[in-house]
Design brief:
This protein has helices at 29-33, 43-56, 69-76, 80-92, 122-131, 146-152, 201-209, 227-233; strands at 96-99, 103-106, 133-143, 159-168, 177-183, 196-197, 213-224, 240-250, 255-264. The chain is α+β, with helices and mostly antiparallel strands.
Length: 284
């Protein structure tokens, strides 16, 4: 499907216009959600729509690479800037992922993302466990490298037992995240679960070894996905994600379990609504 530049009544090409911020290929929220009322859409919107139609009819299957920028410019008769803005819009909509030197890869159709419960207390953690399932992937000993030692706050070179799971919602076709649970090798049996589990590992520590977990610390940070994690999640390496690290402490105050979770940005949403006391209304 070809997209060409619109022309004015004088026959001169009409320039596309849109709201942009920061980098020239960064799309604002209004580009995605607010329709243009009573005026034609910018040219890059038309190009993005054309590419979307091609994807939906199978011209560009999931996992394939879109034609190059130069090819799109030639086929549709548009400028490089128009092509780049169209691709930026498709990335924002979760239809493609672009990598330098590789091109733009077609992704599976985005799913409606159900909000995760706010995890600001033990009740929130229990609600997360209630709504999701852990599907077993692997279990084995690993040697902690420098990168992992920073995440787990432990010495580099020690051995830990690592259990890997996919966190899934029962009705979703794609996993919501990857969860890796780390224990001292002596307690590895606590990580052995059925193929699909709902209960937390720390409860097994108490049941099997008498180690009661009385406190949880949670750290959250933005990151990008490595190839192994991206493959498990069926997304592209380098995609943005939320990294959640939970430290589980015993009554003695020692960390006995660490769980590291990765949630791709396209599948994680958290919404919190809370009342403000009247005195704070004018504080902004």
């Amino acid at each position: 499907m070809k997209v060409g530049p619109r022309t004015t009544q004088s026959g001169a090409p009409q320039k596309a216009s849109a709201q942009w911020k920061g980098k020239s290929n960064e799309v604002t929220m209004s580009d995605r959600r607010q329709p243009y009322k009573g005026q034609p859409k910018p040219l890059y919107h038309a190009l993005a729509q054309s590419i979307t139609i091609d994807i939906e009819r199978g011209a560009h299957p999931v996992g394939s690479t879109l034609p190059s920028e130069k090819n799109l410019m030639s086929v549709h008769g548009v400028s490089r800037q128009t092509v780049r803005r169209a691709l930026a819009l498709l990335r924002f909509q979760g239809l493609i992922a672009s990598r330098p030197g590789v091109g733009s890869m077609v992704l599976p159709a985005p799913q409606e993302v159900e909000a995760f419960p706010p995890i600001i207390s033990v009740d929130g953690l229990r609600e997360l466990l209630r709504r999701t399932e852990l599907h077993h992937v692997s279990l084995g000993l690993i040697t902690v490298n420098e990168r992992l030692s920073d995440v787990l706050e432990c010495r580099r070179g020690i051995q830990l037992s690592e259990a890997c799971f996919l966190r899934r919602r029962s009705a979703a076709s794609l996993p919501a995240g990857v969860v890796r649970v780390y224990l001292h090798p002596e307690y590895a049996a606590a990580q052995i679960t059925s193929r699909i589990a709902r209960g937390p590992i720390y409860q097994n520590l108490e049941r099997m070894y008498g180690i009661a977990v009385t406190e949880v610390r949670q750290d959250m940070t933005a990151t990008v996905l490595d190839k192994e994690t991206a493959d498990l999640l069926q997304v592209a390496p380098g995609d943005p994600a939320l990294q959640v690290v939970r430290f589980y402490y015993s009554t003695a105050g020692n960390p006995v379990e660490v769980a590291v979770s990765h949630y791709p940005s396209s599948r994680f949403r958290q919404s919190i609504r809370y009342p403000l006391p009247p005195a704070s209304w004018q504080a902004g």
